[in-house]
Amino acid sequence: MQNGLEPASVTIRDVARAAGVSITTVSHVLSGHRPTGELTRHRVLAVVEQLNYRPNRVAQSLATRHTRTVGLILPDILNPFFPQLVHAIERSAIHAGYRLLLCHTDSLESLERECLEDLVARRVEGVIYMRGTAAPNPVLERLAEEHFPLVVLDEEVPGLVAPGVYAMNRLGGRMAARHLWQLGHRDVGVIGGPRGLVSVCDRVQGFQETYRRLGAPVPEERTVFTGFSVHGGQEAGRGLLLRHPELTAVFAANDLIAFGVIQAARELGRSVPGSLSVLGFDDVTTAAMVDPPLTTVRQPIRRMGSEAFRLLMGQVRGTWEPVRRQLPTRLVERGSTAPPERVRAVSAAGGATPPRSPGA
Amino acid sequence: MQNGLEPASVTIRDVARAAGVSITTVSHVLSGHRPTGELTRHRVLAVVEQLNYRPNRVAQSLATRHTRTVGLILPDILNPFFPQLVHAIERSAIHAGYRLLLCHTDSLESLERECLEDLVARRVEGVIYMRGTAAPNPVLERLAEEHFPLVVLDEEVPGLVAPGVYAMNRLGGRMAARHLWQLGHRDVGVIGGPRGLVSVCDRVQGFQETYRRLGAPVPEERTVFTGFSVHGGQEAGRGLLLRHPELTAVFAANDLIAFGVIQAARELGRSVPGSLSVLGFDDVTTAAMVDPPLTTVRQPIRRMGSEAFRLLMGQVRGTWEPVRRQLPTRLVERGSTAPPERVRAVSAAGGATPPRSPGA
DNA sequence: GGCGGGTTCCAAACCGTTTTGCATAATGGG
DNA sequence: CCCATTATGCAAAACGGTTTGGAACCCGCC
User: Fold this and answer.
1) What is the pTM for the complete model shown?
2) How large a percentage of chain A has pLDDT more than 70?
3) Which nt is closest to the CA of A63, judged by C1'?
4) Can you tell me the distance from the alpha carbon of B274 to that of B340, in angstroms, rounded to the nearest whole number?
5) Which tens digits make up the pLDDT trace of A330-345?
6) E-strand spans in B240-323?
7) Smallest CA–C1' separation from A64: which nucleotide?
8) CB A188 within 8 A of CB A252
9) Interface probe with A: pick from B2, B57, B92, most Cβ of A within 10 Å
């Protein structure tokens, strides 16, 4: 390698020399950590301007032992849920003068570990950790034990004592159940996400528990699990609907899955919501744009992101405590759910309720 | 600030002391830059293991003058196009041992400049720059002049001589035009993205140029511009359709806009593609999931991302040259386009073509 | 005129690595 | 047995900043 490519950037030494002062002085006028003479200050500033000097942040980081960087570990950037989260975090971060080091793990545990190690080796001041796999992560555990600034976001890590920000998943599941129940659905199916994920368990259990309490427990074979993806939802949805044509509604553990279910339903000639209601989770921005617009349980994504960052900063500048924040979900009713056909027919006959027109 | 929070990480000095060798030796066994005795090596490695030593990457960076980091500047992470691009870049990056420093600019020129400055101050080895504004960026120009490793991605910067990777936008526009023309559309509208963006110009011009050549030039007032967002598309679409109800098809400069147009059409009681065909650009993953599935011009997103990274690496390790790579687009026909009603009626009467059922 | 106090500035140590030049020990050949 | 090598390991100088402890100077006051 030839080297010689570097623009041989100007150092603080160059500035000092050009301004005829010591390095120390330059540093002080730049940082303001100590008062400097009016005259020298202007001279230094002028030289800085003229030479277009910018302090080397890595040298600064080494000396000051802070990098103004936080690491982000996320499982799947293609799931629109995560970009929304990243966006919220980014806003907070930039506002606080921090940058984000991005690590996409593709839900691979090995990558997760590697990234985590690398991030701390790079001396990020903290890590916001979003997992996509249920596999235990020893590195994460060590970090938590050492009280390394860390906040778990979105997907809880069982057994880990560390600060975290989550949605009220169980509550969300209940909301979904109540909604479908009230519409009159008695034969419902559930499509969960990856097995072992706490959020999936909570959502599914919240849903099932409500149906059970209402007197119509969801039989085990009507609950299936798949990946958090459109494809997964489609496959699982097709299977479920084929085995249980009597189903009038399906609750999906996230919006991507719900999208897949809608496609599967269409494939099988079942209209949504006419012959099948579909309910999602997350309220990703595209949820309002699909056909039909998806009824879904909204997570307060922006607040989750900013809260996560806030918590992280709290740790960075002092007090580590394993706060566990849960933010409320809320049902967003759109066009993918409607009363089941039987009920519809009845109420239409009674002239009470016209068939609902799905619309924003 | 109490400090004392740092886990007081173990340094190379600690390892050296514990292993009873010099710092140099430790460094050498770890890097393999010089041969070391079998015995010492094992001893050092054992200590490293035991102390769980990880070299401080920022110190390493300072000493070696490389950070194994590249900066990413992108205008809008909420537009699913960019996460897809980021994903592709990330894959290449991680494979090459690099990490990504993420800068979301919200299409703000001031933020762009700031981020760029910060990234080079942080000594990223290169920058992949995606712009969302037409405003000139002096920092960018300086960097390009200095031959700082840089590749412009997706959105060209007029007047800048720097390596770049783009889609064949003009060609894409032509493809869109040809498609609509062949379906029989003669009254078409165009909704461009932000004014001044080269990609927008190219797409729109490619489209218009084709229609002109075919003998049905698009009148100026049927072309409007808006932001790259669903909302923008909806507003612009509503306005356009209100002023020009005679339109039978609309070409949108990206998928988000197209989604908005579809919503606007629905608002106005026009079915898609029944009474209005809509054609997008990008082929974002959600394009296949909206209703109706969007016919769109696909950009080779993955290839654009990996090619951008490849180009960047080329610069990092040596040769700067302002290569300009253009990747081909391709029309993906889905359900949002169909022959205009008039034509449909005719051909249906002629019994030639049954109304097309939009489907995947 | 000496002295306390406030300004300004600088020298030097440090942050945690890499890397070069050299010293020493071990090895082998003549 | 001695010398030329080769194998090993160390000390010290970077890398580009921050920060602390003083030194030098100026001021006004008693």
Assistant:
1) 0.91
2) 92
3) C15
4) 7
5) 999 999 999 998 655 5
6) 249-252, 277-282, 295-298
7) D18
8) no
9) B57
Q: Which residues of A touch B55 (CB under 8 A)?
A: 121
Instruction: Give residue B95's pLDDT band: very low, low, confident or very high (50, 70, 90).
Output: very high
Whether B29 contacts B41, CB under 8 Å: yes
**Which residue, chain included where needed, has tokens 């032509």?**
B174
How far CA A277 is from CA of A26, A167, A259, B268, in Å, comes to 68, 24, 12, 26
The CB-based long-range contact list for B107-111 (8 Å cut-off, 24+ gap) reads B107/B75, B107/B76, B107/B131, B107/B132, B107/B133, B107/B194, B108/B133, B109/B133, B109/B135, B109/B137, B111/A94
Please judge whether A289 and B230 are an interchain contact, meaning their C-beta atoms are less than 8 angstroms apart: yes
In whole angstroms, what is the distance from residue A328 CA to residue A300 CA? 7
Whether pLDDT at B99 is above 80:
yes
Of A58, A117, A263, which is closest to B122 when you measure between CB atoms? Answer: A58
3-class SS of residue B358? coil
DSSP assigned state of B357 = P
Can you list the residues of chain A whose pLDDT is less than 50?
1-6, 347-360
Determine the distance between A25 (CA) and C12 (C1') in angstroms.
Answer: 14
Residue B353's pLDDT is what? Answer: 42
pLDDT, one tens digit per residue, over B234-260 is: 999 999 999 999 999 999 999 999 999
- CA nearest to A128, candidates A90, A71, A81, A78: A71
Contact indicator for B37, B43 with CB cutoff of 8 Å: no
Domains in chain B, CATH or no CATH each: 12-55 (1.10.260.40), 69-167+302-328 (3.40.50.2300), 169-300+331-349 (3.40.50.2300)
Question: Which residues are B166's β-sheet partners?
Answer: B326
> Which sign does the torsion angle of CA A294, A297, A298, A301 carry?
negative
> Does residue B149 carry a pLDDT above 70?
yes
Chain C bases closer than 7 angstroms to a protein Cβ = 7-12, 14-21
Question: What pLDDT is stored for residue A7 in this prediction?
Answer: 52
Give the integer Cα–Cα distance in Å for A178 and A184. Answer: 10
Asked whether the beta carbons of A135 and A82 are under 8 A apart, the reply is no
Q: What is the pLDDT of residue A342?
A: 65
**Contact status, residue B309 vs residue B93, Cβ threshold 8 Å:** yes
Strands A330-332 and A295-298: antiparallel
Alpha carbon distance A70, A123 (integer Å): 9
Which 8-state DSSP code applies to residue B300?
Answer: -
Q: Which residue of B has its CA nearest to A68?
A: B122
**Which residues have CB under 8 Å from A140's CB, separation 6+?**
A112, A116, A129, A150, A157, A160
pLDDT in the model for residue B359 = 40
Task: List, in order, residues 6 or more apart from A118 with CB less than 8 Å away.
Answer: A103, B57, B99
- Full DSSP string of A166-178: EE-HHHHHHHHHH
CA distances from B147 to A59, A292, A305, B160, B287 (A): 23, 50, 37, 12, 38
By C1' distance from the Cα of B23, the closest nucleotide is D10
